[in-house]
Amino acid sequence: MNDPFPGATGMTMKPLLSHPGATRRQFLGFGLAAAGAMVAGVPLTAVAQAKASDAAQRIADHFSTVKSMTGEFVQFGPRGEQTGGKFYIERPGKIRFNYDAPSGFKVISDGKSVVIDNAKMKTYDLYPLNKTPLKLLLDERIDLSGNKVKGVTEDDDLTTIQLADKSVFGNARLTMMFDPRSYELRQWTITDAQGKDTTVMIFNVKQDVKLDQKLFKIDYKKNIEINTPESNR
Asked: CATH: 2.50.20.10, 3.40.250.10, 2.130.10.10, 1.10.10.10. Which one for 6-227?
C-alpha cells in the first residue's frame, strides 16, 4: 500500500535506520489527488511568480494559525487503490496517520523524526523530519518564499496551490487544495519523480483541539531492535 507522503520516492534520501527490505515507495506521501492539476512545466514570468507566491502565502499564513487538527482521511494511490483512516496534526512538527485495518500501517512524526510503522511487514523505518515534504506543512509558519510556488488557481469551490522545490521535495511535486472562503485544507496530491500521484482527502476535521502527546511518540528502541542484525546486538 502507499503511505500518505510518497514524495520521497524522488528524493536522494535514506532512512536513519531501516529494514533492508524497505523500499522508497514506503515513505511519506501526505496524501491527496489534485484531479491532474499539476504544473505542465512551463515556468512562470517573474511578475506571475510574485503574484502566485503572494496569493499562496496568504492562504498558507492562515493555515499556519491552526495549531492542531484531527479528522478522517481517504487516500487514493497511483493504481486506484483506496485506503482510509484517522489523522492527527499538531504544529510544529507532529503528525500521526493511523490506517484502518487490516493494514496496521502508521506514519508518526514527533517533531524531529518520522517513522513508517508497517506492522504487516514488521518494519519500523526512521527518517529525519527536515528531509521530508512534511517539514514544509508542519512548520510553525509555512514559508512559500523563493520559487516554491509554481502556480495558483482560484475557482469558486477550490483554491489550488502547486509547489515544487528540489530542496524540499526532490523531484516530487505537491498540490494543495483549500476552501476559498475558510482557507481550510481539503486535500493534497504528491506526484513523484515517475509522475505517479498519491492523493489524500480529509473530512470531519476538528481544529485547535487538545491532543494526547502519546500519539506522537516514536519508539526509538523498537527501531534499533527491528533494524539491527542480531549478530550486531
From this structure: 2.50.20.10
